[in-house]
């Protein structure tokens, strides 16, 4: 018998009560660690396997890091955490943005900077209007870009999955490099929209049970597939997501959770919309969740063969997208019939096109020429009577395209001006339907002018 390959290991570190156990449960996908507001609830290391960023990983939840004498309980807890770090391939250092940085956070960050293990800085408890802004304080720790999340509510987990995937060691020569990794697709939508029928049509096999009864697919099902170009695809068919008020049975709650988890793990989501019913709140909610998690979306407008007034149906869809999904302006729509196969051949080319945009990086010089044009055309407004001076922009990452703007009081830029920049970026660099992140870095950030 061949030995089981050792899984890469994540360790979750941080002082007591910053939300480590909540993050552990969220990454594992089930409640294992006890979560409570009392500091020090976790005293022993907990271990479980989970799927993060498309990889199977071993996850360690540790006791809170505290400065204490070695012979005390707190000292032994810290020693256990340090031992866990020595086993880990990647460390997640969690801070609580509600409380703000403490001397203990700074001390442990300094210690982590001396270690050889890659560290991802997780700014937890960022739910609420000013959570993302509060996360910026974490730059002071000198551990790079903080990843804002709410472990309790699940916000920001897609970005965290991406950061972990980039930090993990490669799976081996066979998958080294993005070009050789399978494209991760999730098929999402309401029950009975035709998701499983579409999966069967794409793969050319009866992989999934289909029928007129809603809810035949109860869990997320992954299929390894090679598309018509010969490229590898990991295709996930998810259980249908109903309105929250109708998710009453435990099984349906599990199905909804599986749909959301698959969406967070994927790179591109195919949102299947029943053309006879149109784009309703369930589909809009899924599209907004995909955008929030930084995932690109292609709409498969299914049952198109049964639509009588196609022009009116198209107009209704366009109106719904314009009114409720302006943040993903230009989203691709492919009319199909999953049942007959008509139009399905156009779906993967559309997915590949969106995937290329989602991965696209703009050179710094080209980006700043665009940025200067935007400033000249429409200078930033005053904030509380004081001038906001934006200096330059960078693009630190793609997947999704992320633009960081530096300047005096940049973090005070009003929402309508941020939308102006995002829409201008989307139009100038032709990125229809792709989520775009805009980050502001004010000069109050002590890390802004240093090389990280």
Could you outline the blueprint of secondary structure elements for this entry?
Blueprint: E1 9-13, H1 20-28, E2 46-52, E3 55-61, H2 73-87, E4 90-96, H3 103-113, E5 119-124, H4 131-134, E6 147-148, H5 157-167, E7 183-188, H6 195-203, E8 221-226, E9 232-237, H7 250-265, E10 268-274, H8 281-292, E11 296-302, H9 310-324, E12 332-335, H10 347-358, H11 364-377, E13 382-383, E14 386-387, E15 389-397, E16 402-408, H12 415-428, E17 437-442
Parallel strand pairs: 1-3, 1-4, 4-5, 5-6, 7-9, 7-10, 10-11, 11-12, 16-17
Antiparallel strand pairs: 2-3, 8-9, 13-14, 15-16
Pfam families: KH_dom-like, MMR_HSR1
Subunit structure: Associates with the 50S ribosomal subunit.
InterPro entries: G_ENGA (IPR031166), GTP-bd (IPR006073), GTPase_Der (IPR016484), KH_dom-like (IPR032859), KH_dom-like_a/b (IPR015946), P-loop_NTPase (IPR027417), Small_GTP-bd (IPR005225)
């Amino acid at each position: 018998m061949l030995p089981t390959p050792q899984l890469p290991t994540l360790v979750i570190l941080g002082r007591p009560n910053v939300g480590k156990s909540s993050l552990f449960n969220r990454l594992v996908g089930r409640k294992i660690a006890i979560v409570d507001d009392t500091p020090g609830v976790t005293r022993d290391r907990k271990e479980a396997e989970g799927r993060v960023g498309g990889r199977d990983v071993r996850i360690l939840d540790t006791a809170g890091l505290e400065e204490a004498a070695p012979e005390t309980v707190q000292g032994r807890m810290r020693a256990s955490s340090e031992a866990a770090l020595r086993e880990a391939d990647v460390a997640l250092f969690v801070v609580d943005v509600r409380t703000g940085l403490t001397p203990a956070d700074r001390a442990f960050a300094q210690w982590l900077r001396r270690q050889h293990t890659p560290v991802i800085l997780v700014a937890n408890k960022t739910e609420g209007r000013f959570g993302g802004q509060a996360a910026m304080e974490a730059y002071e720790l000198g551990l790079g870009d903080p990843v804002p999340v709410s472990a309790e509510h699940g916000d920001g987990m897609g970005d965290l999955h991406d950061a972990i995937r980039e930090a993990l060691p490669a799976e081996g020569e066979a998958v080294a490099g993005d070009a050789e990794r399978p494209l991760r697709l999730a098929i999402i939508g309401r029950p009975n929209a035709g998701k499983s029928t579409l999966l069967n049509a794409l793969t050319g096999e009866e992989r999934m049970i289909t029928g007129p009864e809603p809810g035949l697919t109860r869990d997320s099902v992954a299929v390894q597939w090679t598309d018509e170009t010969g490229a590898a695809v990991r295709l996930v068919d998810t259980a249908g997501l109903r309105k929250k008020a109708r998710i009453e049975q435990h099984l349906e709650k599990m199905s909804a959770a599986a749909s959301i988890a698959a969406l967070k793990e994927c790179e591109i989501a195919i949102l299947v919309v029943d053309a006879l019913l149109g784009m309703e709140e369930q589909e809009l909610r899924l599209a907004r969740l995909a955008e929030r998690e930084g995932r690109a979306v292609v709409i498969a407008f299914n049952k198109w063969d049964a639509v009588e007034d196609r022009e009116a149906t198209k107009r209704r869809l366009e109106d719904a997208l314009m009114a409720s999904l302006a943040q993903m302006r230009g989203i691709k729509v492919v009319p199909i019939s999953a049942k007959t196969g008509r139009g399905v051949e156009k779906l993967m080319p559309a997915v590949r096109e969106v995937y290329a945009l989602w991965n696209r990086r703009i050179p710094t010089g080209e980006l700043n020429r665009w940025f200067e044009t935007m400033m000249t055309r429409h200078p930033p407004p005053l904030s509380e009577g004081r001038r906001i001076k934006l200096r330059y922009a960078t693009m630190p990452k793609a997947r999704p395209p992320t633009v960081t703007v530096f300047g005096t009081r940049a973090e005070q830029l009003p929402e309508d001006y941020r939308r102006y920049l995002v829409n201008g970026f989307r139009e100038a660099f032709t990125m229809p339907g792709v989520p775009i992140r805009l980050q502001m870095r004010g000069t109050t950030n002590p890390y802004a002018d240093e090389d990280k």
